[in-house]
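Note to self: keep these together.
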Amino acid sequence: MAAKEWTSQADWETWSWTNGDTTTTPGSVTIAAGNTQAVGVSPVYEAANWAAGYWRALVLAGTQPEATSYYLRFRVGATAVACAAATYSEYINGIDSAGGINFNLRQWILNNPAWDVGPYIQIELCLDSD
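Structure:
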């Protein structure tokens, strides 16, 4: 299965951040002091082997800071250009007891046949703090 992990500060720096600053450390991102929200958009990623059914899940794991919520949404496409122009999914906020999100992307794709799916995906992460 294709996978992309953000395990370094450089990984997070490839994202475009708006609506507030973030602080990045290896493998993590948090809202910078004095801000209540940050929104990051990833680059468009390509699955190495879409024919094998890649992009099966969106998994967000880590420590959720107190009074902070995070939400994911994504868009997919048959080409990088189509992906970047596609409509985003609804926000996902299925935080489990460990403070992470494990979303079955493959099931979502199968249940939404009208979407132009393909090997390209782009993710938006929204961090909100009280």
